[in-house]
C-alpha cells in the first residue's frame, strides 16, 4: 500500500474511540444463573478503575457509558473528575425504565399516566446527570411492549411514546442528544413498542437533529442485513450510536466480532463509506457523531480481558474496512465487474491487520499486544486480592 494511504489508515485508526459499558465490568448472567467472579468492581469507581486499564492497554477506549440507577452516586461531577484523573471521560447515560414493578405493563407507553410520569421523571433525572457528567448522549432503550394481542392499543402506545420522547428532547441542551435503541423482542414477546430501526428512525425524524438511532447489533431477526440499515441511517444523518456485541441466536450479548467478524467488517465498511470515521477522506466532519459503544455481558469469561479483546475486534474490523481500495471498488462497480468488486472487499477482509494495529498502538503509547500486556500487569491478581464482595451488575454498586 502507498505510504500516504497507510498514514491515512493509521491516523483514522488512532482517532477512533470505543466506549465501554460500566455494566460489562460487573457480574452478569442469564436468568438461570449468575456466576460471580472474584475481583469484580463493587462500586462505580472501581468500574472506572478497570475501564482505565482497558484504555491504558488499547489507547482507544477512554469513554465509559453509565447506567442509572446501577451506577447511581452522590456527586456526578465528582465522578466525572475521578474519571478524568484516570484519563477517562463519562460517555452515554443509559436510562433504566424496565426494572421496577410499576413497569410491568410498560414505562412511557404504559396505559396508566402515573406510571408514565414516573418513567419520564427518571429520563429527566438522566438528563440532569448528563449536565453534571458532561455526557453527550442519553441512551434510551424501552422494554415496553405486549405479550398478547389485544393487551393494549398499539397506536395509542406510539402516541404516548412520542409524547415522552418530545418532553425529553425539549429538555436536552444544544450539545446533547438522545439515541433511541430498538429491539425486535424480549422481554415483550408479541409486540415491542420500538421493535425496529424504522420505528426508531420515524420518531427521531419527527423529533429533530438531536435525536438519532442506536443500532444494537444483537437486536435484529436472524439474517437481517445490518449494514444496509447502517448505510441508510448514515446517509440520512440519523445514525447516532452502535451497541456492539455478537449473537448466535437472539440478544446474546457475546463479545463483538466473536460470532461473525465478517458481518462486523461489512458494517464498518459502510460506516467508513458513509463518512462515519473521522480522519478519512469520506468524512466531511471532524466528528461525524457516531458513538462506537460496546453493550456486552461477560458471563463465563474474565471481564477485563474480554473487553480488551472486544475493543481489538472492533479495531480489526475497522482497519480492514479502511484498507478497502475505494478507487478500485468504484471502477469495478462502474464497469459492472461483479467478481472484481467483490474481490476488492474480500482482499481487504482477508488482510492480517494485527501488525498494523500493533504499530498504531505503539504510536499511541499503548501496548502492541494489549492482551499480553494486561496479563503481565498483575491487575487481575490485585483485584482478586483487594476487592471482596463484588455484586451483580444492575443490583447495587
Ligand atoms: C437491551 O436489550 C439493550 O441492549 C440495552 O441497550 C442494554 O443492554 C441495557 O439497557 C443497558 O443499558
Ligand atoms: Zn443495547
Ligand atoms: Zn440488548
UniProtKB/TrEMBL annotation:
<keyword id="KW-0479">Metal-binding</keyword>
<dbReference type="InterPro" id="IPR036237">
    <property type="entry name" value="Xyl_isomerase-like_sf"/>
</dbReference>
<dbReference type="InterPro" id="IPR013457">
    <property type="entry name" value="Rhamnose_iso-rel"/>
</dbReference>
<dbReference type="InterPro" id="IPR013022">
    <property type="entry name" value="Xyl_isomerase-like_TIM-brl"/>
</dbReference>
<dbReference type="Pfam" id="PF01261">
    <property type="entry name" value="AP_endonuc_2"/>
</dbReference>
<feature type="domain" description="Xylose isomerase-like TIM barrel">
    <location>
        <begin position="73"/>
        <end position="251"/>
    </location>
</feature>
<dbReference type="GO" id="GO:0008740">
    <property type="term" value="F:L-rhamnose isomerase activity"/>
</dbReference>
<keyword id="KW-0413">Isomerase</keyword>
<protein>
    <submittedName>
        <fullName>L-rhamnose isomerase</fullName>
        <ecNumber>5.3.1.14</ecNumber>
    </submittedName>
</protein>
<keyword id="KW-0464">Manganese</keyword>
<dbReference type="InterPro" id="IPR050337">
    <property type="entry name" value="L-rhamnose_isomerase"/>
</dbReference>
